Amino acid sequence: MNKVREYCPKCKLKYHIEPSFYTGSMYVSYGVGIAVAVAAYVLTLIFGLDFGPTGIMLSIVAALLITMSYIGAVSKSIWAHFFLKYNPEIAKKVSNDSRT
Ligand SMILES: [Zn+2]
């Protein structure tokens, strides 16, 4: 689930800069998961749903289960953006290559 490619198919940027690089994305996924949980809780308040504590907990768990693969993908993307650099020259070259 949510496999990251070894290299960018266009500019050959290496996505795995060290072994188990994306294991660190679990730190990011914790924060993203908290954000989803808070959003689920706020949505139950906005829509005036009175589930009680157990119902709120179950709705948060349901929201986390539904968005689980998305949270994993977003977390890996955020984690990669901490360490991988955007090179405008390579990007320009790649966009020129794709036009031909
Ligand atoms: Zn690329």
Describe it for me?
The two termini are 34 Å apart. The chain has 4 helices and no strands. The chain has a domain at 34-92. It has 100 residues and is mainly alpha-helical. The structure holds zinc ion. The site of zinc ion (ZN) has 4 residues, from loops. The site of zinc ion has 4 residues, from loops.
Q: How many helical stretches?
A: 4
| Poorly predicted spans | none
Q: What would you call the shape?
A: elongated
Ligand catalogue = zinc ion
Q: Structural class, from secondary structure content? A: mainly alpha
Sheet with the most strands?
A: none
Estimated share of beta-strand residues: under 5%
Tell me the number of strands: 0
The secondary-structure element order is HHHH
Mean pLDDT equals 89
How big is the Rg? 19 Å
User: Percent helix among the residues?
Assistant: 55-70%
Give the terminus-to-terminus CA distance: 34 Å
In short:
The protein has 100 residues and is an all-alpha fold.
What topology emerges from the helices and strands here?
Elements: H1 25-46, H2 52-66, H3 68-83, H4 88-99
Key traits:
single chain; 100 residues; mainly alpha; 4 helices; 65% helix; elongated; binds zinc ion
